[in-house]
Design a protein that fits this description.
Layout lengths: L8 H16 L4 E7 L2 E3 L2 E5 L4 E7 L5 E5 L4 E5 L3 E7 L5 E7 L7 E7 L8
Parallel strand pairs: 1-4, 3-9
Antiparallel strand pairs: 1-2, 4-7, 5-6, 5-8, 8-9
The protein binds copper (II) ion (CU).
Pfam family, one: Cupredoxin_1
Organism: Gammaproteobacteria bacterium LSUCC0057
Keywords: Signal
């Protein structure tokens, strides 16, 4: 095939490679549910030093707001909808979060753990 000699050929190739790279390094998905104004699970373990995709399913009819000062995240999740929040890469440690609309019950913590020392089977 004869490619046209256009000035943007190289930038396009670079963009394609970057896109492929992003697909290969897709963030692990961690699921979290909201039900009766509580988070399930309330302790969410994620790998440290890794970008993680939090998939949050609000099973309540009312909206909730996922909020965390430690994670610098804040997002409203309408009733009976799902949303995605990317977190990390996080240092090893605990990062509390809560539901701002129901803080007396909706409390949880992200626990980032070191998985680099795990022994392969
Ligand atoms: Cu808020």
């Amino acid at each position: 095939m004869n490619w046209p000699k256009l000035p943007f050929k190289k930038p396009l190739s670079a963009l394609l490679l970057a896109t492929l790279g992003a697909v290969v390094e897709a963030a692990p998905v961690v699921q979290l549910a909201i039900e009766q104004h509580r988070f399930f699970p309330e302790v969410v373990t994620v790998p440290a030093n890794t970008k993680v995709k939090l998939l949050i399913h609000n099973r309540d009819a009312s909206a909730e707001e996922f909020e965390s000062f430690e994670l610098n995240r804040e997002k409203v999740i309408l009733g009976n909808t799902k949303t995605v929040i990317y977190i990390g890469p996080l240092a090893v440690g605990e990062y509390p979060f809560f539901g701002e609309f129901n803080p007396s019950t909706a409390q949880g913590v992200i626990r980032a753990v070191d998985t680099s020392s795990e022994v392969a089977p």
